[in-house]
Amino acid sequence: IDGLVYIEEQVCMFLHILPHHVKNRTIHNRFQRSGETVSRYFNSVLCAVLQLHNILLISPDPVPENCDDEKWKWFK
Could you tell me which residue ranges the DUF8040 domain spans (predicted)? Predict the structure, then answer.
């Protein structure tokens, strides 16, 4: 079993896996942690993000059809 994994490293592993779609083995080699440790902490951070989804993910306000703001004219 690996030693203590700080929250910063857990989040770093999570953020490296998610956007780059890398395999567990890649993270295992890069962070020098066992595959089981990588998997455990990925799932731990994922569960935390899912619990915070109402705070982290918000729906954008739609732009009204009659909006005359110059910055939106290119999106018609």
Answer: 5-50
Spatial distance between the Cα atoms of 67 and 28, rounded to a whole number of angstroms: 51
Domain span including residue 17: 7-57
Q: Rounded distance, CA 37 to CA 45, Å?
A: 12
Helix (H) or strand (E) holding 22: none
Q: How far is CA 40 from CA 8, 37, 54, 62, 69, in A?
A: 15, 5, 24, 39, 48
Which pTM does this prediction carry? 0.71
> At residue 76, does pLDDT exceed 70?
no
72 located within any domain? no
